[in-house]
Amino acid sequence: MPDALIQLKQLVSAFSPLSDTDWEDFSKLWKPFSAKRKEIITAMGEKEKYLYFVVEGVQRVYYFDEQNREATLVFTYNPSFGGVLDALLLQTESRYFYETLTPSVFLRASFADIQVLMQTRQSIEILIRQGITHTLSGVFTRLVELQCYSSEERFMQLLKRSPHILQLVPHKYLANYLGIDATNFSKLINKIRI
């Protein structure tokens, strides 16, 4: 999957460029992996062993409880990293599910291997820290949107951030992600000119 490694290198370079030697060692960690549509890659209660780089497909991280309440937390698609990141970095049991919404192709690297490089290569540690910082910034932005914005404002922010998302993700999951009833979500789509 040489094209996938090129895409991975482009994403890594956007966060924190690596020297040729560090990139060579980092790139060796990544192995091809694929999953069918609606496949649970990581289940609640499992340890997250891998960091994923999405090559093809759409996935989501979601929460599901014993009262059948579901909350879609994040979508992943090319070119982005995926997985249940808190469980990965803390090496604890996941509180969430990581599921494919479409057939998906990934590169994945084991956390154990990444951790070894983080401990021996400062540039890899900086890269991972930069990635975590960007993720945390996105979480804070999303919390503000959920707590302060109207349904319409949340919808408009999503379209501003990811204008192509309506074509990638089934609308029922987008409605759940935004905390909007599916019927109201349909009304929003029809009301707002896209």
TrEMBL record:
CDD domains: CAP_ED. Residues 35-120 form the Cyclic nucleotide-binding domain. InterPro entries: cNMP-bd_dom, cNMP-bd_dom_sf, RmlC-like_jellyroll. Pfam families: cNMP_binding (PF00027). This is Crp/Fnr family transcriptional regulator.
